[in-house]
Amino acid sequence: MARAYNFSPGPAMLPEAVLRQAQADMLEWGGAGASIVEMSHRGPEFLQVARQAEADLRELLAIPDDYAVLFPAGGATTQQALIALNFADPGQRVDYVVSGHWGRTALKQLVSVDVNVAASGEAGGFRGIPAREEWRLSDDAAYVHITANETIHGVEFRPAWGHVPPETGKVPLFADFSSSIASEPIDVSKYGLIYAGAQKNLGPVGISVVIVRRDLLERAGQPRADIFDYRSQLKGESMLNTPPTWNWYVLGLTVRWMLDEGGTAEFDRRSDEKARLLYAAIDGSGGFYRNDVDASVRSRMNVPFFLVDQALDAAFLDGAREAGLIGLKGHRVLGGMRASLYNPMPVAGVQALADYMREFQKRHG
Amino acid sequence: MARAYNFSPGPAMLPEAVLRQAQADMLEWGGAGASIVEMSHRGPEFLQVARQAEADLRELLAIPDDYAVLFPAGGATTQQALIALNFADPGQRVDYVVSGHWGRTALKQLVSVDVNVAASGEAGGFRGIPAREEWRLSDDAAYVHITANETIHGVEFRPAWGHVPPETGKVPLFADFSSSIASEPIDVSKYGLIYAGAQKNLGPVGISVVIVRRDLLERAGQPRADIFDYRSQLKGESMLNTPPTWNWYVLGLTVRWMLDEGGTAEFDRRSDEKARLLYAAIDGSGGFYRNDVDASVRSRMNVPFFLVDQALDAAFLDGAREAGLIGLKGHRVLGGMRASLYNPMPVAGVQALADYMREFQKRHG
Q1: Same-domain pairing of A274 and A152
Q2: How far apart are CA A239 and CA A72, in angstroms?
Q3: Is the same domain home to B205 and B303?
Q4: Which of B213, B239, B260 is the last residue of a domain?
Q5: Are B191 and B307 part of one and the same domain?
Q6: Residue A158 included in any domain
Q7: Proportion of chain A in helix, strand, coil states, percent, rounded to 5
Q8: Could you tell me the CATH number of the domain that includes residue A135?
Q9: Which DSSP string do the residues of A150-177 spell out, in sequence order?
Q10: I need a labelling partner for B359 at 20 to 30 A (CA). Which of A7, B86, B153, B318 fits?
Q11: Which of B319, B316, B343, B342 is nearest to B330 (CA)?
């Protein structure tokens, strides 16, 4: 088939311009006699690529100078383990707000700290986020952890929920932004630490981004391997050992593409439009399609939805594929469908999905 | 320039056939409507790629069924931290044999264990490996750790050193094989655990391989995050969270290429030939070029060498680049030059290097 509109939750659709550049560079990068994936990370060519990626990311997200940026290998779950090791003393209280599957998974990465689940949407099936007034925060916590957007449950901290980001007083706010980073302008200075796997809004799989207020790096934390120490990683420019160079390069291409498209203000506008199109198709279906998330926290990035009869699921997915719409099968935790609308997904793709949904309903409703 | 012979130590040269396949698949893989780097790791397409890569790696290395294989994100240094967490009880003795820079770095990844450096080549400038009879091993160690090949110091456990792998009695032998895996047939059953970053002999950067005897996974180890638990990773097929899919796919292509070329027996033969060519150029230079490693443990994979006058280094590197030979600058720890001769480096590349070295000496000797 031709290239489809790919609604995968991550790894996810990349801009075609980025893929074409990666394709063109695959055998040789910039007259250097080798592909980026073959080059030493210590050579001038890759260092240029890496530093440009950081400079562009700082521009895209308006990251203040008193924040450091790391580019660790792997995904966000590893960072969930490392933030506790780096920023909480042994036995120290840490506060977690759980608004979905990934917030709950974060708890499994914690050892040797005193975990306080300050609020959780679990009793309500993760359809909402408890109001800020209901959170039971600790004065002496090392940090408060939230998941800015829940990829599986489709729950996102949105302005309609209340003040975003939530106020946490003197305790720094740490946020997993894996599936919503760069989808709108944010005020980085309101956070102590932001982390994100890149494979949703920032480009390729296999690399993450950590944005951390520099003064927090002075904390002792827990005994840990040097490779797990953010301070060592910062000193080593995220190259204590060989970094995932190709992934870093594609991340850089994707960030550059986002800047060229108009930056986070433009993606905020597009995200609004895409979400409006899809939720309208669901809510206007008279119950044929259903999304159960509270309107105040409905995600613009990941939209889980269910057909009125799950016996229709297979036909829905088959027809979607024939219409050039792929990656719509829901996560096994929830079943049903899920459409992920990250920055590289064009408005036209979501329009095509909404059209298909109406047409499918006509045939099967 | 055209594609050069790339002697980089890792990331390193890949087979051109692998790069061409990755290039062809970059916009769409196998009629699936998306690139591999855009596809869900839970979809049938990527699962097929991942499982085929494991099957091919098992064939290439003749891995017995009672060994599990993991494909973690990131590099070998992370595994150096994880093996202590997974296989040593809190405070338990672990034995390390240090034969170069990376063996020494491994020590920095250890916390909450009782580290015994059983032998070290450091006093001799890492030019040799202490004889097995000199090792001070502990009867109650969780494991004995060696570095099969030292990428920077160019020191490798070779048959001329003595019995390889070294006998460790009832204590399992753990080995960092990052820079020599698949360069010759090995008897996996002699090891408790083998790990390797892929970016040298196994293909792309950003992913590692861990081969571990299954019964060792029953050990309690230390309190650790779920994402750092090899048992959880095995249960989750190395997909507890999003794995580095593209890197895994390129690893699979590279392993397939090695099988098609004749497997480890053939690469053993080629490695012998390449090493002989290069060491002959060094040893036959009358001191113009110098490699200081004991003949019994000279690496076939990484050959550090020095010019008689380091004022000539820049001219040597410039001339090499003009001759289509890149990646020869030595690691900052040692200075001088280093040529890495991993499986994708053809014999013709090493012949070209040896020819260039003789010609350079004629002009400057």
Answers
A1: no
A2: 9
A3: no
A4: B260
A5: no
A6: yes
A7: 40, 15, 45
A8: 3.40.640.10
A9: ETTTTEE--GGGSSSSPP-TTSPEEEE-
A10: B153
A11: B316
Q: How far apart are CA B68 and CA B193, in angstroms?
A: 10
- B280: tokens are 């002959």
Task: Look over chain B and give the mean of its residue pLDDT values, rounded to a whole number.
Answer: 97
b/e code A130-152 from CB counts within 10 Å (16+ = b):
bebeebebeeebbbbbbbbbbbb
Between CA A102 and CA A302 the distance in angstroms is 13
Considering the domain architecture, whether residues A47 and A187 belong to the same structural domain is answered as: yes
Nearest CA in chain A to B79: A227
Q: How many angstroms separate the CA of residue B195 from the nearest CA in chain A? A: 15
In a domain, A72, yes or no: yes
On the question of pLDDT at A116 being above 90, the answer is yes
* Cα of A63 to nearest chain B Cα, Å: 26
Strands B193-197 and A337-340 come out as: unpaired
Residue count of chain B = 365
Q: Is the pLDDT of residue B288 over 80?
A: yes
For residue A15, cis peptide bond before it (omega within 30 degrees of 0): no
User: Measured on CA atoms in the order B168, B170, B174, B177, is the torsion positive or negative?
Assistant: positive
- In terms of domains, do A54 and A120 share one? yes
Question: Does B254 carry a binding-site annotation?
Answer: no
Q: Which residues of B are part of the catalytic machinery?
A: 102, 176, 200
- pLDDT tens readout for residues A284-301: 999 999 999 999 999 999
A170 given a catalytic annotation = no
Chain A CB within 8 Å of residue B30 CB: no
Identify the pLDDT of residue A210. 98
Residue with tokens 């070329």: B261
Q: Are residues A278 and A214 in the same domain?
A: no
Give yes or no: residues A317 and A200 share one domain: no
A218 plus A292 within the same structural domain: no
Q: How far is A133 from chain B (nearest CA, A)?
A: 31
Is residue B196 less than 8 Å (CB to CB) from chain A?
A: no
User: A176 an active-site residue?
Assistant: yes
Does A38 reach chain B within 8 Å, measured CB to CB? Answer: yes
Band the pLDDT of A2: cuts 50, 70, 90. confident
Tokens coding B31: 């009629």
Residue B319, domain extent: 263-364
Q: Do A246 and B241 touch (CB under 8 A)?
A: no
First to last CA, chain A: 28
CB contact under 8 A, A28 and B206: no
Check: CB of residue B40 under 8 Å from CB of residue A152: no
In a domain, A12, yes or no: no
Provide the number of structural domains found in chain B: 2
